[in-house]
Design goal:
Blueprint: E1 4-18, E2 26-38, E3 41-47, H1 58-70, H2 76-86, H3 91-109, H4 113-117, E4 129-133, E5 149-153, H5 159-172, E6 178-182, H6 189-199, E7 204-208, H7 216-223, E8 230-232, H8 241-246, E9 252-253, H9 257-260, H10 263-269
Parallel strand pairs: 4-5, 5-6, 6-7, 7-8, 8-9
Antiparallel strand pairs: 1-2, 2-3
Length: 270
């Protein structure tokens, strides 16, 4: 039996509008569940393109999935070879297809996918809580026990106003809790410097994407001026990865397999 690829759409409402998009909060998450089937065994992947954060458009993803589902594949290796060549242009689609193929192999061998990718992988992983914007009055009320890192959006309002909210929140923050902040590229260099200087000494675990400038030099310069760990996320798609990985100022990367184009290439980059 040849390898068969199929996919079907979904559109799921979020329990609350996601604050990541400044002008148009997201209220639904939509995409396709991708299925790879061979010898009465199947694996699944999730294709949820997000063009604003570095993937192909929904239309491009749909076209690529149609192409892959319409072809005849003798085995998984044949399709994986195609994905290797296309992941830069269709990262969300390639991630979903590769995940489905790896899940299929995992089920055939009765080995958890994480162990198949890395035999030393952990059975548990720490995650942060996500709780909206820094000036949201309900920031702490939505946090369940067990989380020690809370991720919040900044860069939505004036820097002075957000700093006041940040300091007020830190006074109420339980001991040993840390804040992971994400500006989504909201600030210019002067605004970012001011925010970081005023935040020194506060329980901030890291700050993602402080600058709307996409150059690596400005980001590295900003990191050299603060003790707070800065992280690159969506701007990675516009940077030379070799320069990023060899720059001594860079401390953290946020790696999204759906943006990088697959689990294996993301693991290799990590």
């Amino acid at each position: 039996m040849a390898l068969e690829i199929s996919f079907y759409p979904y559109k799921l409402p979020l329990t609350a509008a996601w604050p990541g998009m400044t002008h148009n909060p997201m209220r639904f998450r939509e995409g396709w569940v991708v299925k790879a089937e061979e010898h009465n065994c199947s694996g699944i992947g999730d294709c949820a393109p997000f063009q604003a954060f570095g993937t192909e458009s929904k239309r491009e993803a749909h076209r690529f999935l149609l192409q892959c589902a319409g072809n005849t594949w003798p085995d998984s290796a044949a399709l994986l070879g195609k994905l290797e060549k296309q992941r830069t242009g269709y990262p969300a689609s390639c991630f979903a297809l590769e995940t489905a193929l790896l899940d299929l192999k995992s089920r055939k061998t009765d080995l958890p996918l994480r162990k198949m990718l890395n035999s030393k992988s952990s059975d548990r992983v720490r995650v942060n809580a996500l709780s909206g914007s820094i000036c949201d009055e309900n920031t702490l009320s939505s946090i369940e026990s067990g989380f020690k890192v809370i991720k919040l959006k900044v860069g939505k309002q004036a820097v002075e106003e957000e700093l006041a909210c940040l300091k007020a929140l830190c006074r109420k923050l339980p001991p040993q809790y840390l804040l992971r902040l994400d500006a989504n590229g909201a600030w210019n260099l002067d605004e970012a410097r001011y925010f970081l200087a005023a935040s020194e000494g506060l329980p901030i675990e890291s700050l993602e994407e402080p600058l709307h400038e996409t150059g690596l030099a400005a980001f590295a310069d900003l990191q050299n001026q603060t003790n707070i760990t800065l992280a690159l996320d969506e701007s990675l798609k516009n940077l030379d990865l070799n320069e990023v990985l060899t720059n001594p100022a860079i401390r953290r990367l946020v790696l999204k397999p759906g943006v990088q184009g697959g689990l294996r290439c993301t693991l290799a980059l990590a």
